[in-house]
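Interim report, section 4.2 (structural modelling).
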Amino acid sequence: MRKVAVVGYAQTPNVRTQLYQNEVEMLLSIIPELYETSGFNKDDIGFTCSGSTDYLSGQAFSFVMAVDALGAWPPINESHVEMDGAWAMYEAWVKIQTGEVDTAVAFSFGRSSMGDPAETMILQLDPYTLAPLGPDAPAVAALQARALIDSGKATERDFAEIAARSRRDAKNNPQAQLKGDLDVDALLAEPYMASPLRKHDLPPITDGACAMIIAAEDVIDKAAKPPVWITGLEHRFDSHQLGGRDLTISPSTQAAGEAAGVNKGKIDLAELHAPFSHQEIILKQALGLADDVTINASGGALAGNPLMCAGLARIGEAYRQIQDGKGNRAVAHATSGPCLQQNLVCVLEGQS
Amino acid sequence: MSEELKDPVKMIVTPVRCEYKFTPGFASQKFLRAIEKGKIFGQACDGCGKVYIPPRGACGRCGRATNLEVELKNTGTVVSYSVIRVPSENISVELPYVAASIVLDGADISIITLIQGCAYDEVRIGMRVEAVWRPEAEWGPSLNNISHFVPIDEPDVPFEQVKELS
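Predicted structure of the assembly:
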């Protein structure tokens, strides 16, 4: 295996509605920063991969147009995944493992504000038997939350505490969308959105974009900052059929975590992609994280959830926290699909 | 074939509807507001100077912003065309008609349009054309304000130059 490191990361602020920038313009606002802070530039990049979905803003082939922000002349080696940008980063990592390239950009963008993301997400369900019933994203997540409560593994208060902690921690994240001090008792007095989930348990609707550069050891001398090494990277998935799963556990996260070697050393901090508050409990258990591990110091997806970006952003945030000396060994997680169906686990390490 | 498959289900109803509230972003906003007033504005790359229309904010070659606004003329050059002989729901002109790729004077990428005002077999690469706008009362924020292009009495642009445009 080639040693590969994250050498740069940039993201837009998470905002409810980005009126002034289309997808290309959002990316243009971060790509120059990505090059400047990483030490790598356009000519160094051997491979470019994006993660996005056209359903969000209703524009066919929006990912092709988005490449304009990176400059595609002379023609570039490029690919796309209809998944969160974390999987674009995975493809980039595989490309580097093949030896074909040494450096790659992974990016993603999502302008959820143009559509109705809760409704759009119905389209990711089985189109013959489930989607026609019309359960939107909060309704599907609520089934999972209810199962979790009924199994005795969590309470509504646990959910509210996760939401309150996330918003409080987000106060230190200038790019977070929702931040502030919330009172757990007051939260529990709020009405349900989709019981047992209340508004604070749901992610906000967010517009945003992010981009990352990863590089092989052979070219790491170019890096402007100390590299953060990717020492484990795996993804697994569970059944697409919700009725065929125990929704209170995440076997795919557990399997990916074990394969990535999460617990081969002490984890200092974690960035978990849990768009709904209760999912953090499932993920923490699946990854076997100890109680002293700092989870989602960035505020996580509950403080800003640009769809298709929020997973890659977890890896980016973990990278930043290691850069900032908040810890040396981190686990970042990304999810895709209904009720944590697909899961990617990335172990990051600073100087050994 | 088993018993159950003798009467296969051939149709199910799966309602799918996605609605979107379009927000154009900066570059498209400028373009759409200008064309609403009968003006064609492209944007030039900060690096190479190439002029894009409709602009989306970035130069796809350089990966740089296109900050300089450039007003384009109503005239241009045919860089490719096709004679269409099958009807389309969206286009109500008489068959056959010519769909063409033209580069407006001052622009570096082409737009797709219809050519009218001459026999379809007179259209050729290098031909000089001019925009025909719909009546002002019908204008909206759309390139569709230009109904079609018609030939103008100017010498053809030599193929070598057209090649650079297309």
